[in-house]
Every structure is written in C-alpha cells, then in structure tokens.
C-alpha cells in the first residue's frame, strides 16, 4: 500500500482563518479534516496546504471578477500571506516541510506553483478536502481531472455554506471524475 501512497498527496484547501471563521460549530466540522491529516502523516503521504492570499492592495484582483472583487469590501482583511486571515487554522497546523501553496483564484492551480510541486514529487493521485465544496474543491477537481490526476474527494472533509449544493456535488457531480469517500473510509483503504 505504501508504494501506491508514494505517488499520492493530500490537498487541504482554503482551511485558513478567514474562511473557516464563516462556519458555526467549527471544531466539530474540522474533525474529518484532522482525521485526513493524521491519516496522511501516519502513512507517509505528502500533505500540501492551499490558501488564498494577495499582495497588499490586491493588485491581482480585477473589479470585473465578481467573486474576488468582494474581498476588499467583505472585511476579510488584507489577505496578504502574512495576515492572520490567510494562515491555516491552528487545528490543522502544517508541519515543517509541508508546503503551503498560495493561489490567486478559486482553483488550487490558478496562479500557484502547485503543479510544479506535484510534478517534482511525481505525484499522480490527489486526495482533496477543502472549503468550499462548490468553490475550491469543485474547481480544483475539474482542473486536476483535465490534467489527468487520479482523484479522491473526502466527502466529510469538504464544507459548503449551502448543504444542498454540497450534497449534489458529492453525490452526483464528483463521482463522475473522482472516488468519493469519507475520511474514515479513506483511512481504512491505507491501513
């Protein structure tokens, strides 16, 4: 099993303070993320954290971009890589050597060096968890599938503000391009 996992990486996406703070019952909601993180580390699977951050003044954000132009208006803070808002939630603290990739759009690949990191490590299988299911998880899954990565989505290590959208994506859309399972079920495949 370790041979297969040597080409697998766990991507935990947008689990940063500005985004996690939008969810009530956060400590309970992050338990599957913590389970996935523990599973990956226990099995020697590389973990890569992905976050959204911009330069001071947000020069990367076009006023025509409906989603991102709201950032400066939304009170999410400066969202620079050093701001507290852009830091990974403390319950999912990255360990030394676990990359934190900074992206500039919804997909984990957009404006980041994620693909360079994955290719340099000969990663061909991605296990995805993130916030939001309809945002970073959907966009990253689609782009990763187009780049021919094998994919697994951890259904309970994905959160979305709209439970119905989450359900439809997990049950009907994602299975077309990925294996979908819980963090506990994924752990069982490795143990």
Descriptive notes:
The structure is a single chain. The mean pLDDT is 89. A six-stranded parallel sheet has the order 3-2-1-4-5-6, sandwiched between helices. It is built from nine helices and six strands, in the order αβαααβαβαβαβαβα. It is an alpha/beta fold and 191 residues long. It has one domain (2-190): Rossmann fold. The chain is globular. Helix 4 (31-42) runs parallel beside helix 9 (183-190). Residues 8-184 form the Isochorismatase-like domain. InterPro entries: Isochorismatase-like_dom, Isochorismatase-like_hydrls, Isochorismatase-like_sf. Keywords: Hydrolase.
Distance between the termini: 8 Å
Task: Classify the secondary structure makeup into a structural class.
Answer: alpha/beta
- Count the beta strands: 6
The number of helices is 9
Helix content: 25-40%
- How do the strands line up in the largest sheet? 3-2-1-4-5-6
Compute the average pLDDT: 89
Shape: globular
CATH homologous superfamily descriptor: Isochorismatase-like
In terms of per-residue confidence, which ranges show pLDDT below 50 for 5 or more consecutive residues?
A: none
